[in-house]
Write a structure and sequence with these properties.
By secondary structure, this protein is mainly alpha-helical. The chain folds into two domains: 1-58; 60-96, no CATH class. It is built from three helices and no strands. The protein has helices at residues 2-56, 62-74, 83-91.
């Protein structure tokens, strides 16, 4: 009889210890997932900020900007341009 009582006490102590350890491991897993989530959000925010900083320096439309530079480069030098020439120089040829 003494053996079974001591055995039951040992089982109860072990069971309480196992339950405490289970909560401890769950808490550790939760902390690990939380830190992983925080790091992922931080990386996403830094990436978004870097992208906005990079895009802010780009011209509105790269190809149109390049075409405009080429029109200016190919235009003959004159002292005075007419209104039609200036519109053609800035806007390019009108397409119908």
């Amino acid at each position: 009889m003494l053996y079974t009582v001591i055995g039951d006490i040992i089982l109860l102590i072990n069971e309480k210890f196992v339950i405490k350890m289970k909560y401890h491991t769950l808490l550790k897993q939760f902390q690990q997932m939380l830190w992983t989530g925080i790091i992922m959000v931080f990386v996403a925010l830094v990436s978004a900020a870097a992208t906005m900083y990079y895009v802010a320096d780009l011209p509105a439309d790269k190809w149109e900007y390049m075409q405009m530079e080429q029109r200016w480069a190919n235009w003959p030098d004159k002292e005075c341009y007419s209104k039609d020439n200036i519109e053609l120089l800035i806007k390019g040829p009108a397409t119908d």
